[in-house]
Amino acid sequence: MSKQQNQTETTAASTLDAKSTILIVVDRQSTSQSFKESNHSFTCPTGTIMIGRHHSGDENGQTLYMYATLKAVDSSGNTVPGTFEVENSGWSSPQKESSSDFAAPRNQVITAREHQGDENGQTWYKTGQIYFNDRLCYIEPEGDDLKITVKESAGVWAKKDLPIIHRKHTGDENGNTTYYFGKIVS
User: Fold this and answer.
1) What is the distance, to the nearest Å, from the Cα of residue 181 to the centroid of all Cα atoms in its chain?
2) What is the SS3 assignment for 117?
3) How many Å apart are CA 66 and CA 122, to the nearest integer?
4) pTM recorded for the entire structure
5) Can you tell me the distance from the alpha carbon of 104 to that of 106, in angstroms, rounded to the nearest whole number?
6) Which of 25, 116, 145, 151 falls between 20 and 30 A from 75, CA-CA?
7) Which are the contacts of 15, defined by CB distance < 8 A and separation ≥ 6?
8) CA end-to-end distance (rounded Å), the chain
9) CA 179 to chain centre
């Protein structure tokens, strides 16, 4: 694995004492191009993480992803200077989409998704670890208040300003998809 660097500009310096917690938050957000669900692969650009997904229709419908760069802030909300890297792992084993339940390994976030076919087709995921100034960031799973369940075909964004760490789908395009998000701490 090679570390990929995100050259996020920081806007202010902050002096932290040894007991300070650095939170990693979403900075600049972008939306992918539109993909035909039944035959696509999307990987977040270098140094970004997946924070949302939108799908409309059946397997011939369109899928978009939202991804973001990151920035570090102290407990007062001041930007902490530094660099981010997202070190990607390999692809997961395939899962049948109509009964898929993929959770990123501990302290990892989802950085890519590929799907082939209809609800009986296969879905793969890629995950990554986030590093801030060469220090591994920890991912704290959020509670039920930060999960989103949507009808797969509804054409609704499932998005938070947090990384997606788990996706679960049951049934065809009329089934529900649940997204779980996590908080990043350095």
Assistant:
1) 8
2) coil
3) 22
4) 0.87
5) 6
6) 145
7) none
8) 21
9) 10
